Amino acid sequence: MRRRAFIAALGAVAAFPHAAAAQSGRMPRVGLLMLGNPDPGLFLREITAGLREAGYEDGRNVALELRNAGGSTAQLNVLARELATLRVDVIVAFQTPVVAAAKAATTQIPIVMCPAQEPIELGFVQSFARPGGNITGMTTATAELAGKNFELIREVLPSVRRVGVVGNAADPFHKPYLANIEAAARTLNFELKVALSQGADPFPATFAEVAGSGVQAMTVQPSLPRDRAAELALKHRLPLFVASAEAAEAGALMAYSADIAAVYRQSATFVDKILKGRKPADLPVELATKFRLVVNLKTANALGLTLSPALLNRADEVIE
Amino acid sequence: MSDAAPAATAPPPPSSPPKTRGSLFRKYVLLFSSIVGAALLANGAVEVWFLYRDHTELLLRVQREQAEAAATKIGQFVKEIEGQLGWTTQLPWSAGALDQRRFDALRLLRQVPAVTELTQIDAAGKERLKVSRLAMDVINSQNDLSQEPRFTQAVARRTFHGPVYFRRESEPYMTLAVAGTRRDAGVSAAEVNLKFIWDVVSQIKVGNGGRAYVVDAQGRLIAHPDISLVLRNTDFASLAQVQAARAGGQSPERALSTEDFQGHKVLAAYAPIAPLGWWVFAELPLDEAYAPLIDSIKRTGLVLLLGIVGAILAALFLARRMVVPIRALQAGAARIGAGELGARVEVKTGDELEALADQFNTMSTELRDSREREERVGRLRRFLSPQLAEVIESTGADTMLESHRREVSVVFCDMRGFTAFAESAEPEQVMAVLHEYHAALGELIHKFEGTLERFVGDGVLILFNDPIPCPNPSERAVRMAVEMQVAIAFLAAKWRALGYELGFGIGITHGYATMGRIGFEGRFDYSAIGSVVNLAARLCGEAQDGQILIDNAVHAAVAPLVECDEPSDITLKGIRRPVRAFNVRHLKALAAE
After folding, report:
1. What pLDDT score does A221 carry?
2. Residue of B101, B231, B234 best to disrupt the A interface, most CBs of A under 10 A
3. Which residues of chain B have pLDDT under 70?
4. Could you confirm whether domain B15-316 is CATH 3.30.450.20?
5. What's the gap in Å between the CA of A263 and the closest CA on chain B?
6. 8 A C-beta contact, residue A193 and residue A162
7. Are A167 and A299 within one domain?
8. Would you say residue A201 lies in a domain?
């Protein structure tokens, strides 16, 4: 009897290393899904830094599955389904259109919004406090901030009457975005020229169309290509205001937005919690807490604009 | 100690099996180890108890201090915002000041990230300016806020701390309003995002697995290292520690052992954030809190165990030291009981036991000596009267029996006609006669303290002045001889009636002879050798029945006491010259007295 127990124990000890190896051998996999345009460079840098802060390193204790659709919405859906088929442990979706694509691909795998706008209106979550589904993550109040950017136009360029807006038809967020813009325009007494671009490809043409319609300032939805927008705005000698700090860095005149690097980094804490077994349904959506005004003085000079010292003083970052 | 072992080599006598063996040993071991064990246990228990008390006290104090430090920090956080708000109430409400006020407000937003929205209300309670991080600014809306608590309370008490509310049902916010010092300064009200307190609580390290968190006056969580809990608008009001804080608030203990929201056992300490009615809690898992204590209890237990094992070993050792000599004594006593006198016990413990063993050895030696003396006395009794034997024994003069030369009086006597009688009579008759004869002589030998040297059939040799010296040996010899003649004459008359013709003659001499033991180991005799002995025998041989022949030397000593016949010179066999001999007829009356 005792002997049999001993042999059984021996067998258990012998078998244990295999079980342990099997368990630890399967590294958690994190899918990083992005459309590819706008440029995901900062997002990738910050999210990996955030994961490193939480103790994760690609190839050592986590496998990062990067999927970049190269700007193609069709490809994005394919990649989203691919990650779902791979049964990764969590999908980090860069910006609202990607969250929508991931949501379409899976209702099981947790999805981290990095970030997404108006998650309740767009049906990603039931509430901020209790998302209730497989999606949670960061949001940056970009719709509200669009109004704040209009306020900046009024403050910097008091003479402006007509403002051009390019929305992203491929981004479900464009509706609440445009609604906010229209409300702000009414408050500030702006005349709007709004056009929608179906994703990145027709964007230059759409931008040119709006720019050529006699507007004195421009704004674009942040999920549209930033570099291209800045380039085109400069070409049309129009001041560009975007609710995206990355846009100002890319050459837009100024941007008032969430501290997006901090937002990307903070998304990693959701990945960490989910990998540790928390349910996305119980992880409240977090709103960015830091907001920054970034002013591109180079662009201002190129446009021949003189910015007031008070404004420059207020700016959190001045690009010279 | 090995030298405590008994030297007794003889096997323990079978007559005394040590039935009680080990009982003393067991008693000692049990007693000693239980006394030492109990002392150690008591000491350990007291130590652990004090350890537990001190440790708990220390832990709670540290935690309370942490909670207090956090409360201070959060209090400062709020005070700082109040201070900043105070600055925005400095300007008067004159025309054109709004732009300046807006700049001030924007600067404040830049400087205080926790403030999401700032509203400025004039002295009449009208909203004049609202600056927000997210919403568009509102300038001079003139909304009437004069009935709102943020205005009325601030005006009344200078500062107003609104209740905690949750924006988007998730982010904790609080309204903080400050009235200006000037009468017409109005009120600045800020919406403060309490997520920023997270920075404070997440920096507090309560052990490894502990945490600090903040609840508001209603017990709702407003800051916790796990921000998700806060954003989920978690209610902690049902936790025992929160209830304790809200109920008994200011009790000096402000610490308790309880469970956290997940049901883990924790040690919780708390501190109030005075102006807000909030509470900071510092919680440490009990496992972690008491891990060092349990470690030290384990160490104490190990030391205790070692101590008890040591005590048992010491008890075994001491009991062995005690019991082994006692057993040696027991064995020694048993050997003596079995007749092995002089048995020795070797005990070298240097204490009372050794003294006891020494005494035992002394006793044993004395016992053996006494037995030997008894044996010697028994031997001496063959030569001496009992009292003499005792005297010799008590003087311990074994040397008396050593070979030596001394002047002695020798008495030799035998019966006349005995040889013929012995040949004709039955052996039983011979033995009966000899018995009566010897009994009569023996009594007289003892009476005169003579030394019976030997019996040779009917011949008896008696010495005086050896081995015990006595005064007037010749006189004693003669007196004895006279009484012997009387006694034997009485017997002879009886024998004659029986038809035995037996007489009695005595020869007495005086001179030097050599005395000592002769014989071999196991059979020694005390014997006198010398011509004086031979002469006595020859004189006896010459004596007729009833005669006592004495030589010159004897005669010289007893002449005044006795009446003698005329001396006659007798030629004796083996002696060249004739010997002058006197026959003692009787004692003079004077001497007889």
Report:
1. 94
2. B231
3. 1-22, 95-96, 249-252, 380-401, 590-593
4. yes
5. 15
6. yes
7. yes
8. yes
